[in-house]
Specification:
The chain folds into 2 domains: 187 residues, 3-Layer(aba) Sandwich (Rossmann fold); 54 residues, no CATH class. The chain contains 10 helices and 9 strands. Helix 6 crosses helix 7 and helix 7 runs parallel beside helix 10.
């Protein structure tokens, strides 16, 4: 959508562009088309979009084969605007994607609100068997790839980046203060991700199932929530799991 059109609609809706609201509209339609192409949609796919903006993706998806589209929008004014685009296979939900229970989906499309990327990602890893094409801060993509903190190490076992492209900040309105990247991500599902999602009681049952007797080295870690482990403890726990369960 052209900048002039975005400004006209934004003024009409009286949108507020404070950084904490995370509204940055993508102006470059070629990038949006590329996002959709990278999704590799199939006729039975359910597409989830977090932060549909002004609904340009809904219009472009009409040319593709898919089953359903679900858009999640937090901003009330944008939600009311997007409701007009609903039809038999397009549904708009108002909610906070970092906290809410998400509907079933196969493919994820999103220009994530930059201030809440980490919270949304932690919510997304609860759901298995999906692929996504996202616009996120370049710094977050690099941290995830480098696994440079316990949070990123944890997320890296669930989210695998297979494609990353730096985007020009001038593709957005308002222009963001951070560098932006287009990434393709797949939610991994394997024995390690299963264990990382389990609570400590179930982990102990898994240890019994595999008849692992030498788990004294991690017994203290089983008394903590996995989310509370520091990077060293998490690395130790994952190494143990990889050695015994994979």
């Amino acid at each position: 959508m052209k900048l002039e059109a975005v400004k006209i609609i934004s003024d009409r809706l009286n949108l507020k562009f404070e950084e904490r609201r995370g509204i940055n509209f993508l102006l470059n339609e070629d990038i949006l088309k590329k996002e959709i192409e990278l999704l590799n949609l199939r006729k039975n796919d359910i597409v989830l979009e977090i932060g549909p903006g002004l609904g340009e993706s809904i219009d472009l998806l009409k040319e593709k084969s898919f089953k359903y589209y679900v858009g999640i929008e937090l901003d009330k004014k944008l939600y009311n605007y997007l409701e007009k685009k609903e039809n038999e296979n397009v549904v708009i939900i108002r909610g906070d994607a970092s906290k809410m229970r998400l509907p079933y989906f196969d493919k994820l499309l999103s220009n994530l609100p930059f201030y809440a990327v980490d919270k949304i990602m932690f919510n997304l890893v609860k759901y298995e068997s999906w692929e996504g094409v996202l616009i996120i801060p370049l710094s977050f993509a690099n941290k995830l790839a480098e696994k440079n903190s316990n949070k990123m190490l944890y997320l890296s076992y669930f989210l695998k980046i297979s494609y990353i492209e730096k985007l020009d900040p001038e593709y957005f309105y308002p222009i963001p203060k951070t560098q932006i990247a287009l990434v393709k991500i797949k939610r991994e599902s394997n024995e390690i991700t299963k264990i990382l999602r389990e609570n400590k009681v179930k982990i102990k049952n898994i240890i019994k199932k595999y008849k692992v007797s030498n788990y004294t080295e991690i017994i203290d870690l089983l008394e903590k929530r996995i989310e509370d482990l520091d990077r060293e403890e998490l690395s130790k726990f994952i190494s143990f799991c990889e050695s015994n369960f994979c």
